[in-house]
Amino acid sequence: MSDQSSRSDSTTRSSKPAVAVVDAQSPGNVGTIARAMKNFGFEELLLVDPPELDPDGDAYGFAGHAREDVLPNATEVTFDEIVENYHTVGCTAVTNEDDRSHVRFPFSTPADLSDRLSTVDGRTALVFGRERVGLTNEELARIDEICSIPANADYPVLNLGQAATIVLYEIRPLTLSDEDIQLPDVERVRASEPTLDRLYGQWESLLAEINHPEEKREKTMRMLRRVHGRADLTEREVNTLLGLVRRATERPDQQ
Ligand SMILES: C[S@@+](CC[C@H](N)C(=O)[O-])C[C@H]1O[C@@H](n2cnc3c(N)ncnc32)[C@H](O)[C@@H]1O
Q1: How far is CA 31 from CA 65, 131, 132, in A?
Q2: pLDDT above 90 (res 155)
Q3: How far is the CA of 252 from the centre of ligand 1 (A)?
Q4: Known NCBIfam families for this protein (predicted)?
Protein backbone atom coordinates (compact mmCIF):
# COMPACT_ATOMS: atom_id res chain seq x y z
CA MET A 1 0.00 0.00 0.00
CA SER A 2 1.33 3.45 -0.86
CA ASP A 3 0.56 6.84 0.63
CA GLN A 4 -0.87 9.55 -1.58
CA SER A 5 2.10 11.89 -1.20
CA SER A 6 4.35 9.19 -2.71
CA ARG A 7 2.28 9.10 -5.92
CA SER A 8 4.01 11.21 -8.52
CA ASP A 9 0.81 12.37 -10.19
CA SER A 10 -2.36 11.17 -8.58
CA THR A 11 -4.49 13.34 -10.88
CA THR A 12 -3.60 11.12 -13.84
CA ARG A 13 -5.32 8.16 -12.25
CA SER A 14 -8.52 6.77 -13.65
CA SER A 15 -11.52 9.12 -13.96
CA LYS A 16 -13.67 6.29 -12.57
CA PRO A 17 -14.93 7.08 -9.09
CA ALA A 18 -12.55 6.16 -6.30
CA VAL A 19 -13.75 4.20 -3.27
CA ALA A 20 -12.69 5.48 0.14
CA VAL A 21 -13.05 3.53 3.37
CA VAL A 22 -12.66 5.48 6.61
CA ASP A 23 -11.14 3.70 9.59
CA ALA A 24 -12.38 0.19 8.82
CA GLN A 25 -11.75 -2.21 11.67
CA SER A 26 -12.23 -5.47 9.78
CA PRO A 27 -9.63 -6.43 7.15
CA GLY A 28 -12.27 -8.80 5.73
CA ASN A 29 -14.53 -5.85 4.87
CA VAL A 30 -11.66 -4.11 3.09
CA GLY A 31 -11.08 -7.31 1.09
CA THR A 32 -14.80 -7.61 0.27
CA ILE A 33 -14.86 -4.01 -0.97
CA ALA A 34 -11.72 -4.56 -3.09
CA ARG A 35 -13.35 -7.61 -4.65
CA ALA A 36 -16.60 -5.75 -5.40
CA MET A 37 -14.52 -2.97 -6.95
CA LYS A 38 -12.87 -5.45 -9.31
CA ASN A 39 -16.24 -7.07 -10.11
CA PHE A 40 -17.73 -3.73 -11.13
CA GLY A 41 -14.73 -2.12 -12.80
CA PHE A 42 -13.47 0.28 -10.11
CA GLU A 43 -9.73 0.64 -9.53
CA GLU A 44 -8.82 3.29 -7.01
CA LEU A 45 -9.12 2.28 -3.36
CA LEU A 46 -8.38 4.95 -0.73
CA LEU A 47 -7.96 3.90 2.88
CA VAL A 48 -8.08 6.24 5.88
CA ASP A 49 -6.49 4.70 9.01
CA PRO A 50 -6.77 1.16 7.65
CA PRO A 51 -6.34 -1.98 9.72
CA GLU A 52 -3.26 -4.15 9.19
CA LEU A 53 -3.62 -5.74 5.72
CA ASP A 54 -1.61 -8.91 6.20
CA PRO A 55 -1.07 -10.76 2.87
CA ASP A 56 -2.00 -13.98 4.67
CA GLY A 57 -5.00 -12.46 6.47
CA ASP A 58 -8.69 -11.81 5.77
CA ALA A 59 -8.24 -8.72 3.57
CA TYR A 60 -6.33 -10.67 0.93
CA GLY A 61 -8.38 -13.79 1.68
CA PHE A 62 -11.68 -11.99 0.92
CA ALA A 63 -10.36 -10.00 -2.04
CA GLY A 64 -10.41 -12.77 -4.67
CA HIS A 65 -8.69 -11.56 -7.85
CA ALA A 66 -8.55 -8.03 -6.44
CA ARG A 67 -5.63 -9.31 -4.35
CA GLU A 68 -3.55 -8.90 -7.53
CA ASP A 69 -4.24 -5.22 -8.18
CA VAL A 70 -6.96 -3.23 -6.38
CA LEU A 71 -5.83 -4.20 -2.88
CA PRO A 72 -2.03 -3.93 -3.23
CA ASN A 73 -2.48 -0.66 -5.15
CA ALA A 74 -4.67 0.85 -2.40
CA THR A 75 -3.52 4.27 -1.23
CA GLU A 76 -3.40 5.36 2.40
CA VAL A 77 -4.81 8.89 2.67
CA THR A 78 -6.24 11.25 5.26
CA PHE A 79 -9.88 12.27 5.38
CA ASP A 80 -8.73 15.85 4.68
CA GLU A 81 -7.00 14.75 1.48
CA ILE A 82 -10.19 13.09 0.27
CA VAL A 83 -12.41 16.15 0.81
CA GLU A 84 -9.77 18.45 -0.70
CA ASN A 85 -9.14 16.41 -3.85
CA TYR A 86 -12.43 14.75 -4.72
CA HIS A 87 -16.13 15.42 -5.19
CA THR A 88 -17.25 13.29 -2.24
CA VAL A 89 -20.32 11.07 -1.91
CA GLY A 90 -20.84 9.94 1.68
CA CYS A 91 -22.58 6.56 1.91
CA THR A 92 -24.64 6.21 5.05
CA ALA A 93 -27.84 4.68 6.37
CA VAL A 94 -30.58 7.24 6.97
CA THR A 95 -32.92 6.49 9.84
CA ASN A 96 -36.38 7.73 10.79
CA GLU A 97 -34.88 9.58 13.73
CA ASP A 98 -32.87 11.91 11.46
CA ASP A 99 -34.82 15.11 10.90
CA ARG A 100 -34.62 16.84 7.54
CA SER A 101 -32.08 19.40 8.68
CA HIS A 102 -29.70 16.58 9.60
CA VAL A 103 -26.36 16.25 7.79
CA ARG A 104 -27.73 13.10 6.11
CA PHE A 105 -30.31 15.17 4.11
CA PRO A 106 -30.97 15.40 1.28
CA PHE A 107 -29.73 12.06 0.01
CA SER A 108 -29.99 10.11 -3.21
CA THR A 109 -30.25 6.38 -3.78
CA PRO A 110 -27.42 4.48 -5.49
CA ALA A 111 -29.71 3.94 -8.50
CA ASP A 112 -29.96 7.73 -9.00
CA LEU A 113 -26.27 8.36 -8.57
CA SER A 114 -24.71 7.14 -11.79
CA ASP A 115 -26.50 9.61 -14.08
CA ARG A 116 -25.57 12.57 -11.96
CA LEU A 117 -22.00 11.52 -11.24
CA SER A 118 -21.36 11.18 -14.97
CA THR A 119 -21.70 14.97 -15.21
CA VAL A 120 -19.44 15.83 -12.25
CA ASP A 121 -16.33 17.68 -13.26
CA GLY A 122 -13.23 16.19 -11.68
CA ARG A 123 -12.64 13.13 -9.58
CA THR A 124 -15.30 11.55 -7.41
CA ALA A 125 -14.86 9.45 -4.27
CA LEU A 126 -17.54 7.27 -2.68
CA VAL A 127 -16.87 7.40 1.04
CA PHE A 128 -17.81 4.53 3.38
CA GLY A 129 -17.62 4.66 7.17
CA ARG A 130 -16.59 2.60 10.15
CA GLU A 131 -18.35 -0.64 10.99
CA ARG A 132 -19.43 0.52 14.45
CA VAL A 133 -20.18 4.23 14.12
CA GLY A 134 -20.18 4.90 10.38
CA LEU A 135 -19.14 8.40 9.27
CA THR A 136 -19.32 10.99 12.02
CA ASN A 137 -21.62 14.00 11.70
CA GLU A 138 -18.51 16.19 11.44
CA GLU A 139 -17.24 14.09 8.52
CA LEU A 140 -20.66 14.02 6.83
CA ALA A 141 -20.88 17.82 7.13
CA ARG A 142 -17.71 18.14 5.01
CA ILE A 143 -18.95 15.79 2.27
CA ASP A 144 -20.50 17.08 -0.99
CA GLU A 145 -23.47 14.74 -1.25
CA ILE A 146 -25.08 11.80 0.52
CA CYS A 147 -26.11 8.42 -0.82
CA SER A 148 -28.28 5.98 1.10
CA ILE A 149 -29.41 2.49 0.16
CA PRO A 150 -33.17 2.17 0.75
CA ALA A 151 -33.70 -0.63 3.26
CA ASN A 152 -36.07 -1.84 5.99
CA ALA A 153 -36.87 1.16 8.23
CA ASP A 154 -36.62 -1.15 11.24
CA TYR A 155 -33.05 -2.03 10.30
CA PRO A 156 -31.58 0.07 7.46
CA VAL A 157 -27.92 -0.39 8.41
CA LEU A 158 -26.07 -2.81 6.17
CA ASN A 159 -22.74 -4.47 6.73
CA LEU A 160 -19.94 -2.26 5.34
CA GLY A 161 -18.81 -4.69 2.62
CA GLN A 162 -22.37 -5.41 1.51
CA ALA A 163 -23.29 -1.71 1.41
CA ALA A 164 -20.29 -0.94 -0.79
CA THR A 165 -21.12 -3.89 -3.07
CA ILE A 166 -24.68 -2.62 -3.62
CA VAL A 167 -23.59 0.96 -4.34
CA LEU A 168 -20.87 -0.18 -6.76
CA TYR A 169 -23.27 -2.52 -8.54
CA GLU A 170 -25.81 0.28 -9.03
CA ILE A 171 -23.30 2.76 -10.41
CA ARG A 172 -21.45 0.27 -12.65
CA PRO A 173 -22.63 2.14 -15.79
CA LEU A 174 -19.89 4.65 -14.88
CA THR A 175 -17.17 2.00 -15.11
CA LEU A 176 -18.36 -0.88 -17.31
CA SER A 177 -19.72 -0.83 -20.85
CA ASP A 178 -22.02 -3.56 -22.21
CA GLU A 179 -18.94 -4.97 -23.97
CA ASP A 180 -17.11 -5.22 -20.65
CA ILE A 181 -20.01 -7.12 -19.10
CA GLN A 182 -20.39 -9.54 -22.04
CA LEU A 183 -23.66 -11.17 -21.13
CA PRO A 184 -25.23 -13.15 -23.98
CA ASP A 185 -27.57 -11.01 -26.05
CA VAL A 186 -31.01 -12.01 -24.80
CA GLU A 187 -32.65 -10.32 -27.79
CA ARG A 188 -31.00 -12.75 -30.18
CA VAL A 189 -32.40 -15.89 -28.55
CA ARG A 190 -35.96 -14.59 -28.00
CA ALA A 191 -38.53 -16.55 -30.03
CA SER A 192 -39.53 -14.97 -33.33
CA GLU A 193 -43.17 -14.08 -34.06
CA PRO A 194 -43.52 -16.74 -36.85
CA THR A 195 -42.35 -19.46 -34.41
CA LEU A 196 -44.80 -18.25 -31.77
CA ASP A 197 -47.57 -18.16 -34.43
CA ARG A 198 -46.86 -21.81 -35.25
CA LEU A 199 -47.25 -22.64 -31.56
CA TYR A 200 -50.54 -20.70 -31.33
CA GLY A 201 -51.76 -22.55 -34.43
CA GLN A 202 -50.90 -25.84 -32.75
CA TRP A 203 -52.75 -24.81 -29.58
CA GLU A 204 -55.84 -24.07 -31.75
CA SER A 205 -55.58 -27.54 -33.28
CA LEU A 206 -55.37 -29.07 -29.80
CA LEU A 207 -58.44 -27.17 -28.58
CA ALA A 208 -60.35 -28.49 -31.61
CA GLU A 209 -59.02 -32.01 -31.11
CA ILE A 210 -60.17 -32.14 -27.46
CA ASN A 211 -63.52 -30.54 -28.35
CA HIS A 212 -62.93 -27.49 -26.20
CA PRO A 213 -66.27 -25.58 -26.29
CA GLU A 214 -66.37 -23.37 -29.40
CA GLU A 215 -67.61 -20.33 -27.47
CA LYS A 216 -64.62 -20.53 -25.11
CA ARG A 217 -61.87 -21.00 -27.70
CA GLU A 218 -61.24 -17.33 -28.47
CA LYS A 219 -60.90 -16.46 -24.77
CA THR A 220 -58.69 -19.47 -24.09
CA MET A 221 -56.44 -18.55 -27.03
CA ARG A 222 -56.15 -14.97 -25.75
CA MET A 223 -55.15 -16.29 -22.34
CA LEU A 224 -52.54 -18.60 -23.88
CA ARG A 225 -51.09 -15.69 -25.90
CA ARG A 226 -50.83 -13.58 -22.74
CA VAL A 227 -49.16 -16.38 -20.78
CA HIS A 228 -46.65 -17.00 -23.58
CA GLY A 229 -46.09 -13.25 -24.03
CA ARG A 230 -45.22 -12.75 -20.36
CA ALA A 231 -42.98 -15.82 -20.35
CA ASP A 232 -40.66 -14.17 -22.91
CA LEU A 233 -39.86 -17.56 -24.43
CA THR A 234 -36.75 -18.40 -26.40
CA GLU A 235 -36.86 -20.01 -29.86
CA ARG A 236 -35.76 -23.32 -28.36
CA GLU A 237 -38.43 -23.24 -25.64
CA VAL A 238 -41.17 -22.50 -28.17
CA ASN A 239 -40.00 -25.33 -30.42
CA THR A 240 -40.07 -27.75 -27.48
CA LEU A 241 -43.59 -26.65 -26.53
CA LEU A 242 -44.62 -26.89 -30.17
CA GLY A 243 -43.44 -30.50 -30.30
CA LEU A 244 -45.30 -31.38 -27.09
CA VAL A 245 -48.56 -29.72 -28.11
CA ARG A 246 -48.32 -31.36 -31.54
CA ARG A 247 -47.90 -34.79 -29.95
CA ALA A 248 -50.85 -34.11 -27.64
CA THR A 249 -52.92 -33.09 -30.67
CA GLU A 250 -52.23 -36.29 -32.57
CA ARG A 251 -54.73 -39.04 -31.79
CA PRO A 252 -53.18 -42.19 -30.26
CA ASP A 253 -53.80 -44.16 -33.48
CA GLN A 254 -51.69 -41.57 -35.38
CA GLN A 255 -48.71 -41.80 -33.02
C1 LIG B 1 -22.19 -1.01 9.59
S2 LIG B 1 -22.32 0.54 8.82
C3 LIG B 1 -22.13 1.71 10.13
C4 LIG B 1 -23.16 1.64 11.13
C5 LIG B 1 -23.28 2.88 11.95
N6 LIG B 1 -23.95 2.55 13.16
C7 LIG B 1 -24.07 3.96 11.20
O8 LIG B 1 -25.25 4.13 11.50
O9 LIG B 1 -23.54 4.59 10.27
C10 LIG B 1 -20.80 0.74 7.99
C11 LIG B 1 -20.90 1.57 6.74
O12 LIG B 1 -21.68 0.89 5.77
C13 LIG B 1 -22.31 1.84 4.93
N14 LIG B 1 -23.77 1.63 4.99
C15 LIG B 1 -24.44 0.81 5.83
N16 LIG B 1 -25.75 0.85 5.57
C17 LIG B 1 -25.93 1.73 4.56
C18 LIG B 1 -27.06 2.20 3.83
N19 LIG B 1 -28.30 1.81 4.10
N20 LIG B 1 -26.85 3.07 2.82
C21 LIG B 1 -25.61 3.49 2.50
N22 LIG B 1 -24.49 3.07 3.15
C23 LIG B 1 -24.65 2.21 4.17
C24 LIG B 1 -21.94 3.22 5.43
O25 LIG B 1 -20.83 3.72 4.69
C26 LIG B 1 -21.55 2.93 6.87
O27 LIG B 1 -20.67 3.91 7.36
Answers
A1: 10, 14, 18
A2: yes
A3: 65
A4: rRNA_methyl_1 (TIGR00050)
CATH of 187-254, one of 1.20.1740, 1.10.8, 2.60.40, 1.10.10: 1.10.8
The top-level CATH class assigned to 2-181 is alpha beta
The alpha carbon of 24 and the centre of ligand 1 are apart by a number of angstroms equal to 12
Query: Could you report the predicted ipTM of this complex, rounded to two decimals?
Result: 0.98
Pocket test for ligand 1, best of 33, 157, 168 (most atoms within 8 A of CB): 157
Per-residue pLDDT tens digits for 7-36 = 434 333 448 999 999 999 999 999 999 999
Ligand 1 centroid from CA 151, angstroms: 11
